[in-house]
Amino acid sequence: MPRRGTQQKSLLEGGARSNIGLLVAEHVTAAECVPAFRTSMVDGYALRVPVQPPSPKGVFPVSSLSFAASSQVRDLPPGELVRMATGAPLPYGANAIVMVEDTRLASKTEDGKEETEVEILTDEVRPGENVREIGSDVITALLQDMGYECFDLGTARDQPADLNDQLERGMQRCDVLLTTGGVSMGDRDLLKPAIERHLKGVIHFGRLNAKPGKPTTFATVRQHGRTKAIFSLPGNPAAALAMCYVLVVPGLEIASGVAPAVAGLPKLLVLLDEDIVPDPHRPEYHRVRATVRAGRIHARSTGGQRSSRIGSFLGANALLCLEAREAVYRKGDEVEALIIGSLVGEPRNPAASGS
Fold first, then answer.
1. Cα 191 from chain centroid?
2. Environment class of residue 33 by beta-carbon count within 10 Å: exposed (0-12), middle (13-18) or buried (19+)?
3. Distances in Å between the alpha carbon of 67 and those of 60, 115, 123, 350?
């Protein structure tokens, strides 16, 4: 039951964005799955792998390509691979994606334009690996809640002409351009060339030593006597949202006149309530639920941290700043965390307090 005096409205009133900041009073069920089909979380190759390791290793023929804009899902012939772009639908029969970094080109067509064979260099691919199962208003909601005016320019197709047109519109209308997707290693990741060649922009970095968020790109464009910034975030939603907190929020605050030394989210020390295994190669922003207990802030992981798992932000109000290291962070360790939401205290036990 809603409290007396509580404003009540339908979620359909005024569109989704008018509901930002409201609490739902009953369960809400999605009318359709998002995504509507199984998709690839990385650029790579779709394949069939057995339940028990090892996975197939060696040279395999490449039967076709699958892009994020594909409208048809094909079958995967046994013993063959399908070239996959991030976000592309999985072919029927495939149950895993091997990352392009774990492969090597074996042969091309006579004209040199298409792959015919690829060598898989690893035998450790597991079923479900790099696959987003059936299931960007989040960033818009975040920035609007912070007081920034946002314009949704829509989705650009994976074609240079359409992408150039959308970028031009964004440059004319906005002070800062924020994009998601199109900055990884796929054949249809066209954003970086478009920024450099069409907008004559300068890419200050095109990869980031961070997890999640490795493909994150930052560029500036000089137009009509003004310098405008472009933040190009990964297409995977959890990675995009994490990088928005880490990079975009302080960037917007600095552009709004906040001193760089104090711009961005507050960073506090928290105590771990469980062991957490860090990435040995990249610094990690690990989503956690932080609560105040006995005058200290305690943190517990929200679970799986894949860059596609936007559900890892459910209940998260902090990002642990983990160093790249082999050693496990132990329960009771003190770690820095970026605070992305309100901190709450755990409810007191009436029996313990004698009330």
1. 16
2. exposed
3. 20, 15, 25, 57
- 240: part of which helix (H) or strand (E)? helix 237-243
Decide if pLDDT at 51 tops 50: yes
Reported as a pLDDT band with limits 50, 70 and 90, residue 3 is: low
Q: How far apart are CA 331 and CA 299, in angstroms?
A: 10
Give per-residue pLDDT as tens, 92-132. Answer: 889 999 999 999 999 998 888 889 999 999 999 988 888 87
Q: How many CA atoms lie within 13 Å of 20's alpha carbon, on the beta-carbon side?
A: 13
User: 107 vs 346, which has greater pLDDT?
Assistant: 107
Residue of higher predicted confidence among 37 and 46: 46
Q: What single string gives the DSSP state of each residue in 46-105?
A: EE---SSSPPP-EEEEEEEEE-TT-----B--TT-EEEE-TTPBPPBT--EEEEGGGEEE
Residue type, position 200, single letter: K
pLDDT at res. 352:
45
Collapsing DSSP states into helix, strand and coil, what is residue 341?
coil
Tokens at 336, concatenated:
């820095």
CA 184 to chain centre: 12
**E strand or H helix that includes residue 322:** strand 318-322
**What three-state secondary structure class fits 160?**
helix
Q: What is the mean pLDDT of the chain?
A: 86
